[in-house]
Design a protein that fits this description.
- The complex is a heterodimer.
- Chain A is of the alpha/beta class.
- Chain A is 38% helix and 15% strand.
- Chain A has three domains: 3-163, Thiamin diphosphate (ThDP)-binding fold, Pyr/PP domains (Rossmann fold, 3-Layer(aba) Sandwich), CATH 3.40.50; 187-357, Rossmann fold; 371-540, Thiamin diphosphate (ThDP)-binding fold, Pyr/PP domains (Rossmann fold, 3-Layer(aba) Sandwich).
- In chain A, strand 1, helix 2 and strand 2 (40-43) form a beta-alpha-beta unit.
- Chain B has two domains: 5-80, ACT domain (Alpha-Beta Plaits, 2-Layer Sandwich); 86-158, ACT-like. Chain A, domain 2 (Alpha-Beta Plaits, 2-Layer Sandwich).
- Helices cover 30% and strands 41% of the residues of chain B.
- By secondary structure, chain B is an alpha+beta fold.
- In chain B, strands 5, 6, 7, 8 and 9 form a five-stranded antiparallel sheet that branches. A four-stranded antiparallel sheet of chain B has the order 2-3-1-4, covered by helices on one side.
- Chain B contains four helices and nine strands.
- In chain B, strand 2 (36-41) and strand 3 (47-56) form a beta hairpin.
- The chains are: A alpha/beta, B alpha+beta.
- Chain A binds chain B through residues 115-116, 119-120, 123-124, 127, 144, 176-179, 300-302, 304-306, and chain B through 13-14, 18, 21-22, 25-26, 29, 59, 62-63, 66-67, 69-76.
Chain lengths: 585, 166
């Protein structure tokens, strides 16, 4: 068998049926095998889109996504997508061609040190120097990418290795003596956590992306119900808990919901699950959850104590740990004289009342459109199983803040790296993974233009995603910071008058529509989804809309900007809970 | 910071290309410092052992150990207990020594420090010394007056005392 054949066979043995890629000189042997293979290959129009599409595929389906790029510029174009997947713990395999082994180190044509480039942005990387290493490398790569804290793995494949003949053996062992992810939480820590929870009066749960990656939303709901704890999420945790649930607080952090930021500030016990305490989530770490004992559940031991000192760490897979925690707390509660009762239903009721006071306002009649109104109409047009992806910037934070998600893996966004241009190709990958689901990309005009060439891909392969470009002709988030923190000195954040996004779409044979008035978004999106064709909707929005935020370096309660709420109510929002006085009960 | 101290970290790693780069890259990227690092083969055929000396407080040390452990090619990581380990370094010192008086004094100092003369030329003497980094510093200080031409140090390597296997 040739090396190239072994790559395809090994990928198929891992259950891969589709890859996103872009060929090149050193990949000719591999692509020659793909030519005869039943492995489906989607030819993207830029390698970055291959990586984002593989990432979107992985996030939407939970399966490992695969992307391929050639040596040199192909590999460097993959890098942004790999780094994006790394920051958000997404299982992606990136295969890069490399110059022949005899040329490595000679600064050959299209040679780059892919191994060195991807070392800090992958969970692990491999270089195959002989064809007989390929089956083991690919099996190891999938195992590493999809277990423990998931993440991308890069594989560097020199041209001659793809051509080399070797004896393929079906039976082989992979040997990774340095890789043993912890899965089960320590029973003593679980017991201590249970006691801590039962001895607290105002418990809150913070769910991160780890809850989604470990498929433990059901356990999260059970725990919340068992201990009367409201749930807030990080950006990556959005969808892990239904946001229309009375105990949902929405997203926490710099652009978080007011109710979430205030309640986390007030709680006396914070259970943090599958979350790495990003600075965008915590605000000033000195002022984060100042009254709380923090329990931190994470599969990656290195996340414990990295950004925030926690009181009670539990290293393990969220699903297993949550099940143990629920079992232990239930047992303790069943005792005739339980050690303590934990948060009472009155904490739950307080949260519900408090929350009603700060539900953000979504309905506006304004022209140009307010993003809140647009998002409201998008929500009204979609069922809850529909997948939305976002780009990065204001569009992302508006979506995170105002859009109601209920189901895991339906809200896909570049959280850690904040990669503009992620939304559209990720939607493409998600649609390929789940063709039956409606997939809508919510992009900014800046981010979409970074990847707009891949309109060709969705047209050629008939991948019917709907792209909503929230078009304010600005790099909105940077402009917002210039307005708030740089004396309105709007340096290079206005994007000018071109392009005409509808005409741009039409140039690629993709249908385009423009939306300018309230009501049109819902109508147009429903039409686009019904048409079953790839569509671009250019949504003209108000460039002056600012999302209330916590300035960098401040505590989470220091929200600036007017926080417009849906329901007018008399008086101040009660900031300190009346429970303080009740505690003696 | 006053609670900063020097830590000796012993890491058993797979003996294959790129491992040193992975470890060194990790230290650079995370802003950990490396005072010195030594690498060599170990008692197991496919493994190498690294001794890394790094400064930092307990929180930094904890992160170093955890981040090292995350590397797939790192099999085992330990922070050696300063009370329960032996630390040694090898140093070669080339000294300007063209007079009989200087030569005999250098040889005497070398003997006191249990060093050896490993090379002689009409103009120079080269001393080999093994010991703790402090002992080596002391000899270097003494020899400085004669005119040191070149110093080559391996950096410290360390092993635990007793039955522990690192």
């Amino acid at each position: 068998m040739k090396g190239g054949e072994a790559i395809i066979k090994s990928l198929q043995d891992q259950g891969v049926d589709i890859v996103f890629g872009y060929p090149g000189g050193v990949l000719l042997p591999l692509y020659d095998v793909i030519y005869d293979s039943d492995l489906k290959h989607i030819l993207v129009r830029h390698e970055q889109c291959a990586a984002h599409a593989a990432d979107g595929y992985a996030r939407a389906s939970g399966k490992v996504g695969v992307c391929i790029g050639t040596s040199g510029p192909g590999a460097t174009n993959l890098v942004t997508g790999i780094a994006t997947a790394y920051m958000d713990s997404s299982p992606v395999i990136a295969i890069a061609g490399q110059v022949a082994t005899s040329l490595i180190g000679n600064d050959a044509f299209q040679e780059v040190d892919t191994l060195g480039l991807t070392m800090p942005i992958t969970k692990h990387n491999f270089q195959a120097m002989r064809a007989d290493e390929i089956p083991g490398i690919i099996k190891s790569a999938f195992y590493i990418a999809s277990t423990g804290r998931q993440g991308p793995v890069a594989i560097d494949l020199p041209k001659d290795v793809q051509e080399e003949e070797f004896d393929y053996k079906d039976e082989f062992q992979i040997d990774l003596p340095g890789y043993k992810p912890t899965r089960k939480g320590h029973p003593l820590q679980v017991k201590k956590a249970s006691n801590l929870i039962l001895n607290s009066k105002k418990t809150v749960i913070l769910a991160g992306g780890g809850v989604i990656l470990s498929e433990s939303s059901e356990e999260l709901m059970n725990l919340s119900n068992l201990i009367n704890a409201p749930v807030t999420t990080t950006l990556m945790g959005k969808g892990s808990f239904p946001e229309d649930h009375p105990l949902s607080l929405g997203m926490l952090g710099m652009h978080g919901r007011k109710v979430a930021n205030l309640v986390v500030d007030e709680c006396d016990c914070l259970i943090v699950i599958g979350c790495r305490f990003s600075d965008r989530t915590t605000g000033n770490v000195e002022q984060f959850a100042p009254n709380a004992q923090i329990i931190h559940i994470d599969v990656d031991p290195a996340e414990i104590g990295k950004n925030i000192q926690v009181d009670l760490p539990i290293v393990g897979d969220a699903k297993i740990v949550l099940n143990n925690l629920i079992r232990t707390i239930s047992k303790l509660k069943e005792r005739e004289a339980p050690p303590a009762k934990g948060s009472s239903p009155s904490w739950k009721d307080y949260i519900k009342d408090f929350k009603i006071n700060c539900i953000p306002r979504l309905s506006y009649d304004d022209v140009p459109l307010k993003p809140q109104q647009v998002i409201k109409e998008i929500r009204d047009s979609l069922d809850f199983e529909a997948i939305v992806t976002t780009d990065v910037g204001q569009n992302q934070m508006w979506m995170a803040h105002y859009f109601t998600s209920k189901i895991p893996r339906t809200f896909l966004s570049s959280g850690g790296l904040g990669t503009m241009g992620f939304g559209f190709p990720a939607a493409m990958g998600a649609k390929v993974a789940l063709p039956e689901s409606d997939v809508v990309a919510i992009c900014g005009d800046g981010g979409f233009l970074m990847v707009s060439q891949d309109l060709a891909t969705i047209k050629e392969y008939d991948i019917p995603v709907v792209i909503c470009v929230l078009d304010n002709r600005h790099l909105g988030m940077v402009a917002q910071w210039q307005k708030l923190f740089y004396d309105e000195r709007m340096s290079h954040t206005h994007l000018g008058e071109v392009p005409d996004f509808v005409k741009l779409a039409e140039a690629f044979g993709v249908q385009g529509e423009r939306v300018e008035k309230p009501g049109e978004m819902e109508e147009t999106l429903k039409w686009a989804l019904k048409s079953g064709e790839p569509t671009l909707i250019d949504v003209i929005i108000d460039p002056n809309e600012i999302l209330p935020m916590v300035p960098p370096g401040c505590g989470l309660t220091e929200i600036i900007g007017e926080y417009k709420v849906e329901r007018e109510y008399p008086g101040e929002i009660p900031y300190r809970s009346p429970l303080k006085e009740e505690e003696g009960e | 910071m006053d609670n900063q101290r020097s830590h000796v970290i012993s890491a058993l790693v797979l003996n294959k290309p790129g491992v040193l780069q992975r470890v060194a890259g990790l230290f650079t990227r995370r802003g950990f410092n490396i005072d010195n690092i030594t690498v060599g083969t170990s008692e197991q055929e496919e493994m190498a052992r690294m001794t890394i000396i790094s400064r930092g407080d307990e929180k930094v040390l904890e992160q170093i150990l955890k981040q090292l452990n995350k590397l797939i090619d790192v099999v085992k990581v330990r922070d050696l207990d300063p009370e329960y380990m032996v630390k040694r370094e090898l140093c070669l010192i080339k000294i300007h020594a063209n007079s009989e008086r200087v030569r005999s004094e250098v040889i005497q100092y070398a003997n006191i420090f249990r060093g050896r003369i490993i090379d002689v030329s009409p103009e120079t003497l080269t001393v080999e010394i093994t010991g703790t980094p402090d002992k080596i510093e002391a000899l270097i200080d003494l020899l400085r007056g004669f005119g040191i031409k070149t110093i080559v140090r391996t950096g410290a390597t360390a092993i635990s005392r007793g039955m522990m296997d690192y």
